[in-house]
Amino acid sequence: MTFAELPDTIPLFPLPGALLLPRSRLPLHIFEPRYLQMLEDALKTRQRMIGMIQPRGMPAGGGEKRLSAIGCAGRLTAFSETEDGRYMVTLTGISRFRIKRELQGFAPYIRAEVSWDGFERDLGRAEQDDGFRREQFLDLLGRYFASEQLATDWGTLKEAEDELLLNSLSMLLPFEPEEKQALLEAPTLATRRETLVTLIEFALRSGGDEEIVQ
């Protein structure tokens, strides 16, 4: 998809902790009626795009939940329907976006006018991280997985390309929504890796592991 083909308006799916990144895949289980409608409407469009966005929680004094300013739009690349009318879908990340304004209308879900400016690199080739020291990073990751009692296929991690490895971990590791947002907004893969390392180190410190990779 080219920059010119990106739509001016997209439906938004606010989901705390669910992170989508460019060139990555996010599986979703959709069952709420309003989001089933959103899915059906998106499938009717040429781009088949849905914007994933983090809610920012209840503002002071109550009122409606606010949304983060930046999200990531994905193209529906796989879907299947269950016998009870739910959908299992896969979004493939296309580009991050910035919300310009939410649109009023008759749809039961949120639609927004968005800007893609500043995220042109999202449509290009996979990024490289020249400063990535994989062996050191995997050692840190191993201690984190042990502390969180998580399991993984280490062979796959060792063989994965830099972007796939770092983006997959950013999406899958159990960070808080605001931490996921920081990973999303990282301007480069190197910055995302640095943010990821910082979050892992913080988790290890909180868990009593003081040995940190320099």
Automatic annotation (TrEMBL):
It comes from the Bacteria. Residues 10-204 form the Lon N-terminal domain. It holds the Pfam family LON_substr_bdg. Coiled coil: none annotated. Gene3D superfamilies: LON domain-like. This is Peptidase S16, lon-like. It comes from Frigidibacter mobilis. The lineage of its organism: Bacteria, Pseudomonadati, Pseudomonadota, Alphaproteobacteria, Rhodobacterales.
